[in-house]
Amino acid sequence: MPIPSSSSRAWFLGLIFHTVIAHATYNGVRVLISYRTLELGGSGVVLGLMTACYSLVPLLTALFVGRLVDRGYATAVLWTGTILSIVPVGLAALAPNLGVLLIATMSLGLGQLLTTVASQALIPQSFPASALTSKFGFLTLGVSIGQTIGLPVAGMIADSTDGSPHIVGALWFMTGVSALTLVAAVIVMLRGRTPHVSRADAAKDARTPWSLLSIRGMKPAILASMTTLAAVDLMTAYLPLIGQQNGLSVTTVTWLLTLRTLASVISRLIIGVLTRRWHNLSLLWTASALAGVCIILIPVFTQPWALAILLLISGFCFGLTQPLTMTWVSTLSDPANRAAVLSIRLAGNRLSQVAIPSAASLLTLIAGSGIVFTISGALLLAAGGVTLRNHREKW
Protein backbone atom coordinates (compact mmCIF):
# COMPACT_ATOMS: atom_id res chain seq x y z
CA MET A 1 0.00 0.00 0.00
CA PRO A 2 1.55 3.36 -1.00
CA ILE A 3 2.41 5.58 1.94
CA PRO A 4 1.41 9.27 2.20
CA SER A 5 3.53 11.54 0.02
CA SER A 6 4.27 13.88 2.94
CA SER A 7 6.59 11.31 4.51
CA SER A 8 7.71 9.40 1.41
CA ARG A 9 10.37 11.90 0.34
CA ALA A 10 12.27 11.96 3.65
CA TRP A 11 12.44 8.21 4.25
CA PHE A 12 13.22 7.47 0.61
CA LEU A 13 16.14 9.93 0.65
CA GLY A 14 17.31 8.16 3.79
CA LEU A 15 17.11 4.84 1.94
CA ILE A 16 19.20 6.21 -0.93
CA PHE A 17 21.78 7.56 1.53
CA HIS A 18 21.86 4.18 3.26
CA THR A 19 22.40 2.47 -0.10
CA VAL A 20 25.27 4.79 -1.07
CA ILE A 21 27.15 4.31 2.21
CA ALA A 22 26.48 0.57 2.41
CA HIS A 23 27.69 -0.15 -1.12
CA ALA A 24 30.71 2.12 -0.71
CA THR A 25 31.53 -0.08 2.29
CA TYR A 26 31.00 -3.37 0.45
CA ASN A 27 33.00 -2.33 -2.59
CA GLY A 28 35.93 -0.91 -0.65
CA VAL A 29 36.08 -3.50 2.11
CA ARG A 30 36.03 -6.53 -0.19
CA VAL A 31 39.29 -5.41 -1.77
CA LEU A 32 40.78 -4.64 1.65
CA ILE A 33 39.80 -8.12 2.84
CA SER A 34 41.73 -9.59 -0.08
CA TYR A 35 44.85 -7.69 1.01
CA ARG A 36 44.19 -8.67 4.63
CA THR A 37 43.98 -12.31 3.53
CA LEU A 38 47.43 -12.02 1.96
CA GLU A 39 48.79 -10.31 5.10
CA LEU A 40 47.61 -13.28 7.17
CA GLY A 41 49.39 -15.72 4.87
CA GLY A 42 46.54 -16.67 2.55
CA SER A 43 47.21 -17.96 -0.96
CA GLY A 44 45.34 -17.50 -4.22
CA VAL A 45 43.20 -20.51 -3.34
CA VAL A 46 42.21 -18.87 -0.05
CA LEU A 47 41.33 -15.67 -1.89
CA GLY A 48 39.00 -17.69 -4.08
CA LEU A 49 37.44 -19.28 -1.01
CA MET A 50 36.85 -15.86 0.55
CA THR A 51 35.15 -14.65 -2.62
CA ALA A 52 32.99 -17.76 -2.94
CA CYS A 53 31.90 -17.67 0.71
CA TYR A 54 30.91 -14.01 0.41
CA SER A 55 28.40 -14.97 -2.30
CA LEU A 56 27.54 -18.43 -0.96
CA VAL A 57 25.80 -17.30 2.23
CA PRO A 58 23.40 -14.95 0.38
CA LEU A 59 22.74 -17.67 -2.18
CA LEU A 60 21.64 -20.09 0.57
CA THR A 61 19.62 -17.64 2.68
CA ALA A 62 18.04 -15.32 0.08
CA LEU A 63 14.60 -16.95 -0.05
CA PHE A 64 14.29 -17.18 3.76
CA VAL A 65 15.10 -13.48 4.07
CA GLY A 66 12.57 -12.66 1.35
CA ARG A 67 9.87 -14.53 3.25
CA LEU A 68 10.61 -12.50 6.40
CA VAL A 69 10.30 -9.25 4.45
CA ASP A 70 7.02 -10.39 2.88
CA ARG A 71 5.67 -10.90 6.41
CA GLY A 72 6.26 -7.21 7.17
CA TYR A 73 9.72 -7.35 8.74
CA ALA A 74 11.51 -5.23 6.13
CA THR A 75 12.71 -2.60 8.59
CA ALA A 76 13.90 -5.25 11.08
CA VAL A 77 15.82 -6.96 8.28
CA LEU A 78 17.27 -3.60 7.23
CA TRP A 79 18.47 -2.92 10.79
CA THR A 80 20.03 -6.37 11.09
CA GLY A 81 21.75 -5.92 7.73
CA THR A 82 22.99 -2.51 8.84
CA ILE A 83 24.64 -3.98 11.93
CA LEU A 84 26.16 -6.74 9.78
CA SER A 85 27.56 -4.07 7.46
CA ILE A 86 29.49 -2.46 10.33
CA VAL A 87 30.63 -5.10 12.83
CA PRO A 88 32.27 -7.48 10.30
CA VAL A 89 34.44 -4.66 8.98
CA GLY A 90 35.87 -4.07 12.44
CA LEU A 91 36.19 -7.83 12.92
CA ALA A 92 38.25 -8.04 9.71
CA ALA A 93 40.60 -5.41 11.14
CA LEU A 94 40.95 -7.36 14.40
CA ALA A 95 41.15 -10.82 12.78
CA PRO A 96 44.17 -12.70 14.16
CA ASN A 97 43.87 -15.51 11.61
CA LEU A 98 42.20 -16.55 8.38
CA GLY A 99 39.36 -18.38 10.18
CA VAL A 100 38.14 -15.20 11.87
CA LEU A 101 38.57 -13.28 8.63
CA LEU A 102 36.41 -15.86 6.84
CA ILE A 103 33.67 -15.36 9.44
CA ALA A 104 33.89 -11.60 8.90
CA THR A 105 33.64 -12.08 5.13
CA MET A 106 30.61 -14.35 5.37
CA SER A 107 28.91 -11.97 7.81
CA LEU A 108 29.48 -9.02 5.52
CA GLY A 109 28.02 -10.98 2.59
CA LEU A 110 24.94 -11.72 4.69
CA GLY A 111 24.72 -8.05 5.65
CA GLN A 112 24.70 -7.05 2.00
CA LEU A 113 21.91 -9.52 1.26
CA LEU A 114 19.77 -8.27 4.15
CA THR A 115 20.11 -4.58 3.30
CA THR A 116 19.59 -5.21 -0.41
CA VAL A 117 16.44 -7.34 -0.05
CA ALA A 118 14.90 -4.98 2.50
CA SER A 119 15.71 -1.87 0.45
CA GLN A 120 14.33 -3.30 -2.76
CA ALA A 121 11.18 -4.68 -1.11
CA LEU A 122 10.31 -1.38 0.59
CA ILE A 123 9.78 0.24 -2.81
CA PRO A 124 6.86 -1.89 -4.14
CA GLN A 125 5.46 -1.88 -0.59
CA SER A 126 5.41 1.92 -0.56
CA PHE A 127 4.83 3.25 -4.08
CA PRO A 128 2.32 2.61 -6.88
CA ALA A 129 3.29 0.40 -9.82
CA SER A 130 3.65 3.40 -12.14
CA ALA A 131 6.48 4.78 -9.99
CA LEU A 132 8.44 1.57 -9.47
CA THR A 133 10.94 1.85 -12.32
CA SER A 134 11.83 5.43 -11.42
CA LYS A 135 12.25 4.56 -7.72
CA PHE A 136 14.29 1.45 -8.49
CA GLY A 137 16.37 3.65 -10.81
CA PHE A 138 17.22 5.99 -7.94
CA LEU A 139 17.97 3.05 -5.66
CA THR A 140 20.39 1.50 -8.14
CA LEU A 141 21.84 4.96 -8.77
CA GLY A 142 22.76 4.93 -5.09
CA VAL A 143 24.43 1.56 -5.62
CA SER A 144 26.48 2.94 -8.53
CA ILE A 145 27.54 6.03 -6.60
CA GLY A 146 28.56 3.93 -3.60
CA GLN A 147 30.54 1.53 -5.76
CA THR A 148 32.24 4.44 -7.50
CA ILE A 149 33.48 6.12 -4.31
CA GLY A 150 34.08 3.08 -2.09
CA LEU A 151 37.10 1.59 -3.79
CA PRO A 152 39.14 4.78 -4.35
CA VAL A 153 38.44 5.97 -0.79
CA ALA A 154 39.58 2.65 0.69
CA GLY A 155 42.61 2.65 -1.60
CA MET A 156 43.68 6.18 -0.66
CA ILE A 157 43.44 5.42 3.06
CA ALA A 158 45.33 2.14 2.69
CA ASP A 159 48.03 3.73 0.55
CA SER A 160 51.10 5.11 2.29
CA THR A 161 54.26 6.96 1.46
CA ASP A 162 56.56 4.25 2.81
CA GLY A 163 55.34 1.71 0.24
CA SER A 164 53.70 -0.55 2.82
CA PRO A 165 49.87 -0.44 2.67
CA HIS A 166 48.02 0.19 5.92
CA ILE A 167 45.21 -2.32 5.47
CA VAL A 168 44.15 -2.54 9.13
CA GLY A 169 43.96 1.25 9.40
CA ALA A 170 41.88 1.40 6.22
CA LEU A 171 39.51 -1.24 7.58
CA TRP A 172 38.98 0.80 10.75
CA PHE A 173 38.33 3.89 8.63
CA MET A 174 35.75 1.97 6.58
CA THR A 175 34.16 0.79 9.83
CA GLY A 176 33.57 4.44 10.68
CA VAL A 177 32.17 5.13 7.22
CA SER A 178 29.81 2.16 7.43
CA ALA A 179 28.53 3.40 10.80
CA LEU A 180 26.86 6.27 8.93
CA THR A 181 24.28 3.72 7.78
CA LEU A 182 22.88 3.83 11.33
CA VAL A 183 21.89 7.47 10.79
CA ALA A 184 20.34 6.60 7.46
CA ALA A 185 18.41 3.68 8.98
CA VAL A 186 16.89 6.04 11.55
CA ILE A 187 15.67 8.28 8.71
CA VAL A 188 14.15 5.27 6.94
CA MET A 189 12.07 4.67 10.09
CA LEU A 190 10.08 7.82 9.20
CA ARG A 191 8.27 5.60 6.71
CA GLY A 192 6.32 4.03 9.55
CA ARG A 193 5.69 0.46 10.55
CA THR A 194 4.43 -2.22 8.15
CA PRO A 195 1.79 -4.52 9.67
CA HIS A 196 3.20 -7.94 10.44
CA VAL A 197 1.70 -11.11 9.04
CA SER A 198 1.70 -14.25 11.14
CA ARG A 199 3.67 -17.25 9.94
CA ALA A 200 0.46 -19.25 9.52
CA ASP A 201 -1.25 -16.54 7.47
CA ALA A 202 1.86 -16.02 5.36
CA ALA A 203 2.08 -19.73 4.66
CA LYS A 204 -1.41 -19.67 3.13
CA ASP A 205 -0.33 -17.26 0.38
CA ALA A 206 3.32 -18.25 0.06
CA ARG A 207 4.30 -19.94 -3.19
CA THR A 208 7.20 -22.34 -3.67
CA PRO A 209 10.32 -21.10 -5.49
CA TRP A 210 9.54 -23.39 -8.44
CA SER A 211 6.02 -22.02 -8.61
CA LEU A 212 7.33 -18.45 -8.62
CA LEU A 213 9.88 -19.30 -11.32
CA SER A 214 7.10 -20.77 -13.44
CA ILE A 215 5.35 -17.39 -13.70
CA ARG A 216 5.60 -16.25 -17.31
CA GLY A 217 8.32 -13.64 -17.57
CA MET A 218 10.16 -14.57 -14.37
CA LYS A 219 12.90 -16.62 -16.01
CA PRO A 220 13.66 -14.02 -18.73
CA ALA A 221 13.84 -11.26 -16.10
CA ILE A 222 16.23 -13.23 -13.92
CA LEU A 223 18.31 -14.25 -16.95
CA ALA A 224 18.69 -10.60 -17.99
CA SER A 225 19.81 -9.65 -14.49
CA MET A 226 22.20 -12.60 -14.15
CA THR A 227 23.93 -12.05 -17.47
CA THR A 228 24.36 -8.33 -16.81
CA LEU A 229 26.03 -8.75 -13.42
CA ALA A 230 28.29 -11.50 -14.74
CA ALA A 231 29.24 -9.23 -17.65
CA VAL A 232 30.16 -6.41 -15.28
CA ASP A 233 32.33 -8.73 -13.18
CA LEU A 234 34.04 -10.25 -16.23
CA MET A 235 34.70 -6.85 -17.76
CA THR A 236 36.24 -5.59 -14.52
CA ALA A 237 38.42 -8.69 -14.21
CA TYR A 238 39.57 -9.09 -17.83
CA LEU A 239 39.74 -5.57 -19.28
CA PRO A 240 43.10 -5.04 -17.51
CA LEU A 241 44.39 -8.15 -19.28
CA ILE A 242 43.15 -6.91 -22.67
CA GLY A 243 44.78 -3.57 -21.91
CA GLN A 244 48.07 -5.19 -20.97
CA GLN A 245 48.09 -7.27 -24.15
CA ASN A 246 47.52 -4.14 -26.25
CA GLY A 247 49.88 -1.75 -24.50
CA LEU A 248 47.30 0.24 -22.53
CA SER A 249 48.42 1.72 -19.23
CA VAL A 250 46.78 0.97 -15.90
CA THR A 251 45.54 4.56 -15.79
CA THR A 252 43.87 4.19 -19.18
CA VAL A 253 42.12 0.97 -18.19
CA THR A 254 40.99 2.51 -14.89
CA TRP A 255 39.50 5.50 -16.68
CA LEU A 256 37.74 3.23 -19.16
CA LEU A 257 36.08 1.31 -16.32
CA THR A 258 35.19 4.61 -14.65
CA LEU A 259 33.50 5.75 -17.87
CA ARG A 260 31.39 2.59 -17.78
CA THR A 261 30.30 3.33 -14.21
CA LEU A 262 29.50 6.98 -14.99
CA ALA A 263 27.42 5.90 -18.00
CA SER A 264 25.39 3.65 -15.67
CA VAL A 265 24.85 6.58 -13.32
CA ILE A 266 23.53 8.72 -16.20
CA SER A 267 21.13 6.04 -17.45
CA ARG A 268 19.72 5.56 -13.95
CA LEU A 269 19.20 9.30 -13.59
CA ILE A 270 17.06 9.45 -16.73
CA ILE A 271 15.38 6.03 -16.61
CA GLY A 272 12.11 7.62 -15.52
CA VAL A 273 12.08 9.75 -18.68
CA LEU A 274 12.95 6.76 -20.87
CA THR A 275 10.18 4.56 -19.46
CA ARG A 276 7.62 7.27 -20.14
CA ARG A 277 8.56 7.12 -23.83
CA TRP A 278 9.18 3.39 -24.28
CA HIS A 279 7.80 0.21 -22.76
CA ASN A 280 9.94 -1.34 -20.03
CA LEU A 281 10.48 -4.61 -21.88
CA SER A 282 11.40 -2.78 -25.10
CA LEU A 283 14.10 -0.92 -23.20
CA LEU A 284 15.26 -4.10 -21.47
CA TRP A 285 15.72 -6.29 -24.54
CA THR A 286 17.38 -3.43 -26.42
CA ALA A 287 19.76 -2.76 -23.53
CA SER A 288 20.71 -6.45 -23.18
CA ALA A 289 21.27 -6.92 -26.91
CA LEU A 290 23.19 -3.66 -27.42
CA ALA A 291 25.44 -4.36 -24.43
CA GLY A 292 26.06 -7.87 -25.78
CA VAL A 293 27.23 -6.55 -29.15
CA CYS A 294 29.55 -4.01 -27.49
CA ILE A 295 31.15 -6.61 -25.23
CA ILE A 296 31.78 -9.02 -28.10
CA LEU A 297 33.60 -6.20 -29.93
CA ILE A 298 35.93 -5.32 -27.02
CA PRO A 299 38.75 -7.74 -28.04
CA VAL A 300 38.35 -6.62 -31.67
CA PHE A 301 38.57 -2.83 -31.33
CA THR A 302 41.29 -2.24 -28.74
CA GLN A 303 42.17 1.39 -29.47
CA PRO A 304 41.44 3.55 -26.39
CA TRP A 305 38.87 5.72 -28.20
CA ALA A 306 37.03 2.65 -29.52
CA LEU A 307 37.03 0.98 -26.12
CA ALA A 308 35.73 4.21 -24.57
CA ILE A 309 32.74 4.18 -26.94
CA LEU A 310 32.04 0.49 -26.32
CA LEU A 311 32.23 0.89 -22.54
CA LEU A 312 30.09 4.03 -22.54
CA ILE A 313 27.34 2.27 -24.48
CA SER A 314 27.52 -0.96 -22.49
CA GLY A 315 27.67 0.94 -19.18
CA PHE A 316 24.57 2.94 -20.13
CA CYS A 317 22.77 -0.32 -20.93
CA PHE A 318 23.95 -2.01 -17.73
CA GLY A 319 22.48 0.88 -15.76
CA LEU A 320 19.05 0.25 -17.26
CA THR A 321 18.96 -3.52 -16.86
CA GLN A 322 18.95 -3.83 -13.07
CA PRO A 323 16.09 -1.42 -12.20
CA LEU A 324 14.04 -2.72 -15.15
CA THR A 325 14.37 -6.34 -13.99
CA MET A 326 13.53 -5.32 -10.42
CA THR A 327 10.32 -3.71 -11.66
CA TRP A 328 9.54 -6.70 -13.86
CA VAL A 329 9.82 -9.39 -11.18
CA SER A 330 8.09 -7.29 -8.50
CA THR A 331 5.05 -6.71 -10.74
CA LEU A 332 4.82 -10.35 -11.84
CA SER A 333 4.11 -11.60 -8.34
CA ASP A 334 1.33 -10.92 -5.86
CA PRO A 335 2.16 -8.68 -2.85
CA ALA A 336 2.54 -11.67 -0.51
CA ASN A 337 5.49 -12.97 -2.54
CA ARG A 338 7.17 -9.80 -3.84
CA ALA A 339 10.19 -9.90 -1.57
CA ALA A 340 10.50 -13.62 -2.27
CA VAL A 341 10.80 -13.06 -6.03
CA LEU A 342 13.26 -10.21 -5.49
CA SER A 343 15.27 -12.59 -3.30
CA ILE A 344 15.20 -15.28 -5.98
CA ARG A 345 16.47 -12.68 -8.45
CA LEU A 346 19.31 -11.82 -6.06
CA ALA A 347 20.13 -15.50 -5.56
CA GLY A 348 20.33 -15.86 -9.35
CA ASN A 349 22.67 -12.89 -9.47
CA ARG A 350 24.98 -14.46 -6.89
CA LEU A 351 24.92 -17.79 -8.72
CA SER A 352 25.86 -16.09 -11.98
CA GLN A 353 28.69 -14.20 -10.31
CA VAL A 354 30.20 -17.52 -9.21
CA ALA A 355 29.35 -19.88 -12.08
CA ILE A 356 29.75 -17.78 -15.24
CA PRO A 357 33.19 -16.26 -14.43
CA SER A 358 34.43 -19.68 -13.26
CA ALA A 359 33.38 -21.35 -16.50
CA ALA A 360 34.72 -18.50 -18.62
CA SER A 361 38.09 -18.54 -16.86
CA LEU A 362 38.50 -22.24 -17.62
CA LEU A 363 37.85 -21.62 -21.31
CA THR A 364 40.63 -19.01 -21.42
CA LEU A 365 43.09 -21.85 -20.94
CA ILE A 366 42.29 -23.17 -24.43
CA ALA A 367 40.88 -20.15 -26.30
CA GLY A 368 42.60 -17.04 -24.91
CA SER A 369 41.22 -14.10 -22.91
CA GLY A 370 39.01 -12.85 -25.73
CA ILE A 371 36.66 -15.83 -25.27
CA VAL A 372 35.48 -14.30 -21.99
CA PHE A 373 33.98 -11.33 -23.82
CA THR A 374 32.52 -13.54 -26.53
CA ILE A 375 30.75 -15.72 -23.96
CA SER A 376 29.54 -12.76 -21.94
CA GLY A 377 28.25 -10.92 -24.99
CA ALA A 378 26.54 -14.04 -26.36
CA LEU A 379 24.72 -14.57 -23.06
CA LEU A 380 23.51 -10.97 -23.09
CA LEU A 381 22.29 -11.36 -26.67
CA ALA A 382 20.46 -14.53 -25.66
CA ALA A 383 18.87 -12.72 -22.71
CA GLY A 384 17.80 -9.90 -25.02
CA GLY A 385 16.28 -12.39 -27.44
CA VAL A 386 14.33 -14.18 -24.70
CA THR A 387 13.03 -10.84 -23.37
CA LEU A 388 11.99 -9.77 -26.87
CA ARG A 389 10.10 -13.04 -27.42
CA ASN A 390 8.33 -12.63 -24.08
CA HIS A 391 7.43 -9.03 -24.99
CA ARG A 392 5.97 -10.06 -28.35
CA GLU A 393 3.97 -12.91 -26.80
CA LYS A 394 2.56 -10.52 -24.23
CA TRP A 395 1.46 -7.98 -26.78
Automatic annotation (TrEMBL):
PANTHER family the UniProt entry points to: INTEGRAL MEMBRANE TRANSPORT PROTEIN, INTEGRAL MEMBRANE TRANSPORT PROTEIN-RELATED
Annotated Major facilitator superfamily (MFS) profile domain ranges read 1-395
Q: Where in the cell is it found?
A: Cell membrane
Keywords, comma-separated and alphabetical: Membrane, Transmembrane, Transmembrane helix
Per UniProt, what is one Pfam family of this protein?
MFS_1
The record's listing under InterPro entries reads:
MFS (IPR011701), MFS_dom (IPR020846), MFS_trans_sf (IPR036259), Sugar_transport-like (IPR052528)
Identification of the protein by name: MFS transporter
The membrane spanning regions, by residue number, are 46-66, 73-94, 100-124, 136-158, 170-190, 221-241, 253-271, 283-301, 307-333, 354-383
Question: Which molecular-function annotation in GO is an example for this chain?
Answer: transmembrane transporter activity
Q: Among its keywords, does the record have Secreted? A: no
Q: Name one GO cellular component term.
A: plasma membrane
User: Which organism was this protein described from?
Assistant: Brevibacterium aurantiacum
The membrane topology of this protein is:
Multi-pass membrane protein
SUPFAM superfamilies this protein is in?
Answer: MFS general substrate transporter
Predominant localisation class:
membrane
Q: Which Gene3D superfamilies match?
A: MFS general substrate transporter like domains
Asked if the record carries the keyword Transferase, the reply is no
